[in-house]
Amino acid sequence: MAGRRTLAGDDEDVLDSLTIGRRVRRLRVDRGMTVGELGDAIGRAASQVSVIENGKRELKLAELQRLARALDTTLDALLEPEALSRRDELEIELERAQRSPLYSSLDLPALPVRKSLSDAAIETILTLHGELERLHEQRAATPEQARRANAELRAEQRARDNYYEDLEHAAAELLAAIGHRGGPLSQRATSELAAHLGFTLHYVGDLPATTRSIADHRNHRIYLPIRQPGTDARSALLQALAAHVLDSPEPHDFGDLLRQRVETNYLAGALLVPQASALEYLTEAKAARELSVEDLRDHFAVSYETAAHRFTNLATRHLGIPVHFVKVHASGAISKAYANDEVQFPTDVLGAVEGQQVCRWWSARQVFEVEDRLSPYHQYTDKPSGTFWCTSRIESSTSGDFSVSVGTNFAEAKWFRGRDTKRRLPSRCPDPSCCREPSGKSTAYWEGKAWPSARLNASLLAAMPDGSTTGVDKVEVYDFLDRHATPHP
């Protein structure tokens, strides 16, 4: 397990839907077929063929095979990355530009790609868009670099359904080494795992504020904070052990830092909720149409957030259910998010979702309006990208109250307890008239008569100390180790 890994899968060379769509259109025209004729051949409406040719839908393998047969070609030929015409390349780039968060933020109408639109006009538009992107990147400071890296990481997680097979194997090997036979991981077993890896445990009250734990490899000790009420004593230890097992070097940039954090948390979660036991439990629950994040939490004695994360790890790869996860602060700002079920999170011009405001009508915010915080909250939401079912719960931390939500599209809600909820709300976001603009009556009454004092988010101005990627104060860490470890020469 030593050394670094990348989170990207083996599918970096797979053609995108825009390129495939253009190739389908070219083959159809070459064979003298109309959109309707191709639709009849693959069992789809003509409008659906247009959606495919315009690159607005990702195709599954079976659909690609039907298209290849209908177009009298092979799947390999359909996907072969041969050069497109200059016009096709320009149209694809223009379509990509219009789909970017930056273009969307300009609030410009969609520009239809017609034959009357000259190559020179498209090139001019693309040049202007490229310059806007350059200026945005030039203005980016430390927080923006981190947000860009996080957006890239989220895309990689989506591509692999948030499932990391090598980490699952690593967790299974570690659990087998201490004789764990499945089910919840006890605190005693967690301590045995630390001993198996050669560490003694030391709980202290003076751990540096910039750290969650410190592993002293010289003396084979792990220092952890004295347990606080309401926290899981296993989590911080398992994260420290996971970092040791993964043997990750000092991160060079935010991408490295975030990937290491994801890997560490994933391995810790796979130890707390072992895959074999979890799949046995979840498969039974799915067969009974009683999937529940609450039940997974209680069965493995973990936090709701850990159970929600673990469910997203396993749901798509092993249960065939696309899902989304979102953690939202009481203010409505997204803290974490993941999706592979086509739900559309709000994004900034860099494609990042962290810090963006979730629609007021989503389950993730509606749950804050409910007085009963013990019972599960379920809701259907009609969004521009479709109808989604979601279950949400509020968890409290030193940073405030957060809602943790897991959802899926309407068709998959049948597997979950809570699917019979009558709560159903519409959401038109990102349309500002949905929930981001006050009513005309309120605006007329209060405009110029109210001046709230904003709470400035310190992270807007924050930078890592002395250029550190992790933000850890090494002076404090080494002073701490000098106090607690065996004196060095």
In CATH, what is the class of the largest domain? Mainly Alpha
- In the sheet with the most strands, the strands line up as 5-4-8-7-6-9
**Overall structural domain count:** 2
SS field, number of helical segments: 19
Stated plainly, the CATH topology of the largest domain is called Arc Repressor Mutant, subunit A
Protein name: Helix-turn-helix domain-containing protein
Coiled coil: 146-173
GO molecular function, one term: DNA binding
Keywords: Coiled coil
Description:
- The protein is α+β, with helices and mostly antiparallel strands.
- It folds into two domains: about 15-140, Orthogonal Bundle (434 Repressor (Amino-terminal Domain)), CATH 1.10.260; about 165-425, Arc Repressor Mutant, subunit A, CATH 1.10.10.
- Helices cover about 45% and strands about 10% of the residues.
- The protein has 19 helices and nine strands.
- Strands 5-4-8-7-6-9 form a six-stranded mixed β-sheet.
- Strand 6 and strand 7 form a beta hairpin.
- Helix 11 runs parallel beside helix 12 (about 235-245).
- The longest helix has 21 residues, at about 120-140.
- The radius of gyration is 26 Å and the shape is globular.
- The model is unreliable at about 1-15 and about 465 (pLDDT under 50).
- Keywords: Coiled coil.
- Pfam families: HTH_31.
- GO terms for molecular function: DNA binding.
Short account of what is shown:
This protein is of the alpha+beta class. It folds into 2 domains: 17-139, lambda repressor-like DNA-binding domains (434 Repressor (Amino-terminal Domain), Orthogonal Bundle); 165-426, Orthogonal Bundle (Arc Repressor Mutant, subunit A).
